[in-house]
Amino acid sequence: MRGTQIAALTAGHPAGLTDALNLVAGVDAALNRGLARVGEEDATALAGLAGALATTPLANLVAEAVDKIIAGSGTQEYVAALAGARSAVLGAVHDALLGQVDVALGRSRAPWAPVPADVSGEVSPALAGVRAWLSEVAVTGCAASTTSWWPGPGRRLRRRWPFLNCGGSRCCSTVSPPSCAPACRSP
Questions:
Q1: Which of 33, 53, 85, 118 is most buried, taking the most CB atoms under 10 A from its CB?
Q2: How many CA atoms are closer than 13 Å to the CA of 187, on its beta-carbon side?
Q3: Helix/strand/coil (H, E, C) string of the chain?
Q4: pLDDT of 132-176, one tens digit each?
Q5: pLDDT tens sequence across 14-72
């Protein structure tokens, strides 16, 4: 890279980058503590997420999800809406940084042409199991859910993810090792 290109990349950040990353950090902290009992700080972070997406197609869904979660009546669909909103903010961060790189390098990109999604009404059992588990982790908090996964003195790392390959059968349990463990394919 030439010095001018490096200077253009390191001269500053795109507008709103720090705010977007702080917003995601607040939402991550809320998810880490859990959505079962949302405190004031977490409610502020979730409301900020809804506000950040107020002018997007996700606005109504995210606002409803945040309201329900703060009220204590969140469901899997609302947790999925939060995950989608968080991904949308990080996607905007990516686009802003990529635009900065393109300007610094003198590149131009062809406009992105969206492809219509094939949305079927049925969800595979494996996807439903993963979605249920992720919702459980979001409600109880990542810190509370994953504490037993990490090795302590004299313990080996416990592998909890084999249930993701169980095809949605009764193997999908985060509480105890699956009863059908030999049938599950560990990564």
A1: 85
A2: 8
A3: CCHHHHHHHHCCCCCCHHHHHHHHHHHHHHHHHCCCCCCHHHHHHHHHHHHHCCCCCCHHHHHHHHHHHHHCCCCHHHHHHHHHHHHHHHHHHHHHHHHHHHHHHCCCCCCCCCCCCCCCCCCCHHHHHHHHHHHHHHHHCHHHHHHHHCCCCCCCCCCCHHHHHCCCCCCCCCCCCCCCHHHCCCC
A4: 877 777 777 766 555 555 555 544 444 444 444 444 444 444 444
A5: 888 889 999 999 998 888 888 888 889 999 999 999 999 999 988 999 999 999 989 88
Contact 45, 29 (CB under 8 A): yes
